[in-house]
Design goal:
The complex is a heterotetramer of chains A (about 575), B (about 425), C (about 260) and D (about 130). In chain B, the strands form five sheets. Chain B has a nine-stranded mixed beta sheet with strand order 5-4-20-19-18-6-7-16-17, covered by helices on one side. In chain B, strands 11-10-9-14-15 form a five-stranded parallel beta sheet. Chain B folds into three domains: about 40 residues, no CATH class; about 210 residues, Rossmann fold; about 170 residues, Dimethylsulfoxide Reductase, domain 2 (3-Layer(aba) Sandwich). Chain B contains 17 helices and 22 strands. Helices cover about 35% and strands about 20% of the residues of chain B. With about 260 residues, chain C is mainly beta. Chain C has a domain of about 140 residues. In chain C, the strands form three sheets. Chain C has a 13-stranded mixed beta sheet with strand order 5-1-6-8-9-10-11-12-13-15-19-18-17. The relative contact order of chain C is 0.09. Helices cover about 25% and strands about 30% of the residues of chain D. Chain D is built from five helices and six strands. Chain D is globular and about 35 Å long. The chains are: A alpha/beta (about 575), B alpha/beta (about 425), C mainly beta (about 260), D alpha/beta (about 130). Chains in contact: A-B, A-C, B-C, B-D, C-D. Chains A and B meet through helix 1, helix 2, helix 4 and strand 16 of A and helix 3, helix 4, strand 8, helix 5 and helix 13 of B.
């Protein structure tokens, strides 16, 4: 946070959380926060330029064991983005798996100031935090994986949702995490035996189904005043015909009353879950069916996981899925199962416009954005780096804003795009207000961060501002893309961190974490079971497990009291 | 007397964290539980480098920390091709400052992986690593293969805590439910415990691994009657055990990384794992040596994109083991100064490379005197991580664990020493207008 | 035609440390059209500092060139710590009068490099085209890929007068390599295409190959045990055993051919 | 002219215990040694604790002989450390890893003294 005053004058402001849709307006910042007025400010002239709150990414893999395993096993990716150090910046490397410094700089250049690390294996949480600390500029948080955990499954089996709540509360605290992450529930545990699970299969040895895991975790999560819902990567990701599994997963939380005005489930990288057909041969888009569900229901929010063409590094706790992908490509494959908790799979992948399957995947991500009517229900992501690196966001933005660009691009893709996707028949074009919603407003609200100053420019909000070098009337897709790639200014906590596309300051970001407050008796009862797990099955001791305060030097704590 | 529990061992890649020690008069007086003979020896302590020193006319003269740090900074700031080497027996917090210093002065930064499991890293870069945490092995593995690894000597708690002898959820009866295969040139203490011992001809690992792959994929017809000194029937028996296991793991050590073929032998071992995975669950894991060699690889990777042998001469990272790895730089006489921290090339590098090291200015940062001290020009004593200083380390399966501080010390921790050198270097460069 | 002579000054390699000079900025493509004074001012890396070419090399220029094709660079002096000679070159000619250091001809796509001595590791790394002649020995990873990449050499022609090191042509996908001497272990490792001829002996050639052809005219030591003997074939009047492999990559992929006497 | 053998190096428990104690007698007694098969010892005509000189193209060193049953004939094992490293090749074959195992060596009985670590280091200086 910078001390002093800043005035951003005459910009055209898009602040959807506060209903500001392209109004010419001044933004005043004092000591890092948005205020009514300032007296003796530094002035930035934003005349005629697009001004938005700092971007908020709801789901991205930027830090931790699997991201780094991705970097480590891809020196060929590392050599792609090398940039020498400057007086201000550390050296950069990497494209799909950039180093920590490049991650911070590149997001900041796009006007983003908050990124959620989407998957933190609890046992390796210290690693995630070590990297988050090393990512300059960005405020951050991380989602601990809590669905394939033996403790979770045992409580699901016994039906003790209160004890399950005590467990997730303890784990979120122990990992300095933000909310409950679910990745291929049951399937990742099954993968430890080289198997997988569909939504209603029994998890080997545990006598529960993935559907039961998801439902119980949603119930347990809502027992606290949690800012965010459960964050779900469902079963059968990336399998042809999985869209019915997807909607069945959504159905699981129907009727669960969320703590606040947000859905009870956030379903992530929906592109990978919107597949029709029965094989890769007759693979087709079911974005329409998924969008239809989202349009008719209020209990699920989504993010896109939209494809960026080119080479990338796929990585997920969904081990069996990565294995399938590796079997298709025969390229390198890393797997890392994590005892009692989760797993990791990583393999490089090339999305090619010449491939019919990749073409349809590419169409699906954008179709979802275009077919879901209410932009407040979705966030722009590429599930970085799974569907492509985050640095491709401006491409997606320009596509959504320009039917012309979509038509031109479709011409370069495999011809299946004309008959196995709706892509070419959709005329909708996003306006800047909608772009502001899917790149900051929606994510901030869904994560509950708008109450903590993120994703908007109301009085008291964080002084995080992106000023794009474009007029609100701009229709040229190329110019839009360029503007969203490198801001004229990015301001973080009232400090100019990017100017004319160059990083000029690198303050440290804050780590946001949630402290669910659970009844002590419940916690004690749960701990008896948990300590037994450490005594017999974990390979580290109980007392060395929780993340020490030293790993979060810039903490922002959000308390989540028990609800009743 | 105070008893401290859950002490974390800072010796080998096992990073045992259930040790109990007694501390009296600010000294570890007893290791009560958990540590192996080697770890215990570390916790109980050895003779120290007593004070900072600078070499003058051939012998080390004691000086203050300030003087030693200043001298170190002067040497580094004036260097055209400095090497910053070591980093494995210290904490990640110090390693981070090391990378920053390397960027600041345009140095090559390398760590002990380059003479230990560097080839494993190179192999992973070609084919990836199907692996898991050690607890997975403990709970599930019914087939354990040690290949070119002798945990009985090098990782004395490994079998007990994590693999053959440990008891877990699906392995309640310990080694009764498990099979042990050992592949080695010598009949080691570990080999003596094995259900199957494949005594391999030195240097023939690659051939044996290729044969195993052919057998796992079902091409028995092409494999000759003997490969690398091992009869085909023994290979077939091993393959049968692999296929019939529910969860198999290969642990490999320096018998593989040091042998002919180096990283490609490991690629082949990983390919065997991939082939076995078409039948059952199979994983593979390098037996990392130093307690935080995995950690410097992690830090170096997230900060530069690459795990070791990183040349930051041009201000950005150029990664190439075999070119900018420490031994190569020294044998080729490429570097003109060296900072050695938390490692001992004097003892662990080939003589050929020590010859150059002895000729150039060397800065040593270490708690203990060792062969490197014999030719170091600036010697800076450090606190012992895990005894006198805390910090993060990564176990051989990349699980991060925080070392505990057990006693107080006057010695400065590595992180602080590095930060002060960096500050001094910056001050010198600022003065020079760079 | 233009001839640019660059003679490395003795003092550059005279110190206790022999700090390498990296000359990827000195290719015919990059020097074409430059005057002697301009060439002298081209920056080259010497350790962690950029220096003027003229400060490290004696530079002389004869003739004129309309394009890179007409430029010939002759490197002289102790070149054993001169790295990246002809790295990325597209046209023209480089002649190195002596042993050269690593990455000579790496990523080259055209033109010709002649090394009058030995070349250290990674010569011809990821070469796409052109010709590289090494009259002496070549080090490890000749014509291989960079770390982690799927593809090594894809085109062009490489001739080595002497012996070669480990992992020659790893991940090679195209082009041709001729080795007059012996090839050390794992030549053609993971090769997918192209052609390698070894006049002398080889150790463990062709491991993990999925395409392309290797011919060993001398002896093969430590034959990879996962190749299938298909019969014999005559090449230039001599009988060779023909193997296909590597079956360790599975039958579906094992499309490499290895000819052994 | 000594007997031709294949030299390998590696870890031992006592070497590990004295990793931070390399100037000690304990380290010297453990690491300045060479393990051989009994029949190789007989052929060489050396008994336990007698000295042997090991030579490679990279150097030579005197160490104490030690019988070890599990070591195959024709292979000698010197614990990793300064004595083994006086003999190994620094050629990393483009991988950064020197050749610590599988070095062609010659071994013969000797009356020469085993150099202490400090003396051994001195041979690299000047």
């Amino acid at each position: 946070m910078a001390e002093g005053e800043l005035l951003i004058r005459n910009g055209v402001v898009y602040d959807p959380i506060n209903g500001v849709k392209g109004e010419k307006k001044d933004i005043c910042i004092r000591d890092g926060k948005v205020v009514e007025s300032v007296t003796n400010p530094k002035v930035i002239d934003a005349e005629g330029r697009v001004v938005m709150p700092g971007g908020v990414d709801i789901h991205s893999h930027i830090a931790g064991g699997k991201v780094n395993a991705g970097r480590l096993f891809r020196p060929e990716d590392g050599r792609k983005g090398v940039k020498a150090r400057t007086k201000v910046c550390r050296q950069e490397s990497g494209y799909s798996v950039p180093n920590t410094f490049a991650t911070g700089y590149r997001y900041a250049r796009m006007g983003y100031t908050f990124v959620m690390e989407a998957a933190m294996p609890p046992l390796a949480a210290r690693h995630t935090h070590e990297e988050l600390v090393d990512i300059p500029i960005l405020d951050n948080a991380a989602l601990p994986l809590l669905d394939n955990n033996w403790m979770t499954m045992e409580y699901v089996k016994s039906g003790d949702t209160d004890l399950l709540a005590a467990y997730i509360a303890w784990m979120i605290k122990a990992t300095k995490g933000y909310s409950v992450k679910v990745v291929n529930p049951g399937g990742t545990e099954a993968w430890a035996w080289a198997k997988n699970c569909d939504l209603n299969d029994e998890v080997p040895y545990f006598d529960v189904t993935p559907a039961e895991i998801v439902k119980n975790l949603a119930v347990a999560n809502e027992k606290f005043e949690m800012p965010h819902s459960i964050h779900v990567h469902g079963n059968m990701l990336g399998h042809p015909g999985n869209y019915e599994v997807t909607t069945s997963t959504y159905d699981l939380v129907k009727g669960i009353k969320p703590y606040r005005d947000r859905p009870a489930m956030h379903a992530t990288h929906t592109q990978f879950h919107s597949y029709g057909g029965t094989t890769w041969g007759n693979f087709e888009s079911k974005a329409g069916a998924i969008a239809d569900y989202i349009n008719k229901n209020e209990h699920v929010s989504i993010d896109l996981g939209s494809i960026i063409l080119g080479d990338t590094t796929t990585m997920t706790a969904d081990g069996p899925m990565e294995y399938s992908l590796y079997q298709i490509t025969g390229r390198k494959w890393t797997n890392h199962d994590v005892e009692l908790e989760t797993g990791t799979g990583i393999t490089p992948f090339l999305y090619s416009g010449k491939s019919p399957v990749n073409t349809i995947q590419w169409a699906i991500g954008q179709e979802l954005a275009l077919l879901v009517k209410d932009p407040w229900k979705l966030a722009l992501t590429t599930d970085h780096p799974n569907a492509g690196p985050f640095i491709g966001y401006p491409i997606i933005i320009s596509m959504l804003m320009s039917k012309k660009r979509r038509d031109e691009s479709a011409e370069d893709m495999h011809k299946v795009i004309f008959d196995r996707a709706e892509y070419c028949s959709i005329d909708r074009e996003y306006d800047l207000n909608e772009i502001a919603i899917i790149t900051r407003g929606m994510a901030a609200k869904t994560l509950g961060l708008h109450e903590h100053g993120k994703g908007h420019l109301g009085i008291g909000a964080d002084g995080d501002v992106a000023i794009y070098d474009m007029s609100p009337e701009e229709t040229d897709a190329g110019k839009i893309q360029k503007a969203f790639l490198n801001t004229k200014y990015t301001i973080k906590g009232g400090e100019v961190v990017v100017k004319d596309g160059e990083v000029v300051a690198t303050p440290a970001g804050k780590t946001y974490f949630v402290t669910p407050e659970c009844d002590e008796k419940l916690t004690d009862e749960m701990l008896v079971k948990l300590k037994d797990k450490f005594e017999h099955y974990y390979s580290v001791s109980f007392n060395n497990y929780p993340v020490q305060d030293a790993y979060v030097p810039n903490p922002y704590e959000i308390k989540a009291p028990w609800r009743s | 007397m105070v008893e401290i529990t859950d002490v974390v061992c800072s010796l080998c890649g096992c990073v045992c964290d259930d040790i109990v020690v007694e501390v009296e008069d600010n000294k570890v007086t007893k290791v009560k539980k958990g540590a192996c003979a080697v770890g215990k020896s570390k916790l109980m302590g050895h003779g120290r480098i007593e004070e900072p020193a600078i070499r003058e006319n051939g012998s080390l003269k004691a000086c203050s920390y300030d003087d030693a740090i200043k001298k170190a900074a002067e040497i580094l700031a004036a260097s055209r091709r400095p090497l910053l080497y070591g980093w494995s027996s210290t904490v990640c917090e110090a390693d981070k400052v090391g990378v920053e210093l390397a960027e600041e002065i345009g140095a090559v930064i390398d760590n002990t992986a380059s003479v230990c499991h560097g080839p494993s890293v190179l192999a992973i870069q070609d084919v990836g690593l199907p692996s898991c945490t050690l607890g997975e092995v403990k709970n599930r593995a019914d087939l354990i293969i040690y290949w070119g690894a002798n945990p009985a000597a090098a990782h004395a708690n490994h079998m007990k805590r994590y693999s053959y002898i440990s008891k877990g959820y699906w392995t309640e009866e310990g080694k009764k439910n498990k099979k042990l295969v050992v592949v080695d040139v010598r009949r080691t203490a570990t080999a003596k415990m094995a259900d199957v011992f494949l005594q391999i001809e030195q240097g023939k690992d690659y051939l044996v691994l290729s044969a195993l792959r052919a057998l796992l994929y079902g091409y028995e017809d092409v494999v000759p009657e003997e490969v690398g000194g091992i009869p085909k029937k023994d290979l077939l028996e091993t393959v049968k055990m692999m296929k019939e296991s529910k969860f198999g793991i290969i642990f490999f050590g320096m018998g593989v990384t040091h042998t002919r073929g180096r990283h490609n032998t490991i690629v082949n071992a990983i390919e065997v794992t991939r082939a076995a995975h078409t039948h059952t669950k199979f994983s593979i894991m390098p037996m990392r040596g130093h307690y935080n060699v995995a950690g410097i690889n992690q830090v170096c990777t997230w900060e530069t994109g690459f795990p070791f042998a990183v040349d930051l001469t041009r201000g950005y990272a150029w990664y190439n083991p075999g070119e900018v790895s420490a031994t190569d730089l020294l044998i080729r006489r490429e570097c003109d100064t060296a900072l050695i921290i938390a490692s001992d090339p004097g003892a662990h590098f080939p003589g050929e490379s020590i010859r150059h090291l002895a000729k150039i200015p060397v800065i040593q940062i270490d708690p203990f005197p060792n062969p490197t001290t014999e030719f170091a020009d600036v010697v800076i004593p450090a606190a012992i991580s895990g005894v006198e200083a805390e910090g993060n380390v990564y176990r051989m399966d990349n699980i991060p664990i925080r070392l505990r501080k057990l006693v107080d010390t006057e010695y400065i921790a590595d992180e602080e020493i590095m930060k002060r050198i960096l500050e001094e270097v910056r001050a010198i460069r600022e003065k020079e207008g760079e | 035609m233009q001839t640019i002579k660059l003679k490395l000054k003795e003092e550059v390699t005279r110190g206790v440390a022999k700090i390498p000079v990296e000359v990827d900025s000195l290719t015919p493509d990059k020097l074409a059209g430059k005057t002697e004074a301009e060439i002298k001012a081209v920056k080259v890396w010497w350790g962690n500092k950029e220096e003027n070419t003229g400060d490290l090399f004696d530079v002389s220029v004869e003739g004129e060139a309309g394009s890179a094709e007409e430029v010939k660079i002759v490197l002289e002096g102790d070149l054993s710590r001169v790295k990246h000679i002809g790295d990325g070159m597209k046209a023209g000619e480089i002649e190195a009068l002596g042993d050269v250091d690593m990455h000579c001809g790496a990523m080259m796509s055209g033109g010709k490099i002649t090394v009058k001595g030995a070349a250290d590791c990674w010569a011809g790394r990821e070469m796409h085209g052109g010709e590289l002649v090494i009259e002496g020995d070549a080090g490890d990873n000749l014509c291989a890929m960079y770390r982690g990449e799927m593809t090594g050499m894809t085109g062009g022609k490489v001739t080595v007068g002497g012996n070669t090191g480990e992992c020659v042509a790893q991940n090679m996908a195209g082009g041709e390599i001729e080795i007059k001497g012996n090839a050390y272990i794992l030549t053609g490792l993971n090769m997918k295409g192209g052609k390698i001829t070894i006049e002398g002996d080889a150790v463990m050639p062709g491991a993990d190959m999925t395409g392309g052809a290797i011919t060993v005219k001398g002896n093969v030591r430590d034959m990879i045990p996962s190749f299938r003997l298909e019969g014999t074939e005559s090449i230039e009047g001599e009988e060779y055993k023909k193997y296909t492999g590597d079956l360790a990559m599975t039958e579906k992929k094992a499309k490499g051919v290895l000819y052994v006497k | 002219m000594g007997t031709k053998v294949n030299l390998i190096s590696g870890r031992t428990i006592v070497q590990g215990q004295n990793l931070d104690n390399k100037l000690s007698e304990a380290y010297f007694n453990e690491v300045a040694t060479c393990e051989l098969n009994g029949s190789d010892m007989e052929k060489l005509g050396v008994a336990a604790d007698e000295r042997v000189k090991v030579k490679t193209s990279f150097g030579e060193v005197v160490v104490k002989a030690k019988e070890k049953a599990g070591t195959p004939e024709g292979v000698i094992f010197i614990p990793m450390g300064p004595w083994a490293n006086a003999l190994v090749s620094g050629d990393t074959h483009g991988a950064g890893m020197p050749s610590f195992k599988g070095i062609d060596a010659e071994i013969e009985p000797t009356e020469e003294e085993v150099l202490h670590v400090k003396e051994l280091m001195k041979t690299y200086m000047g």
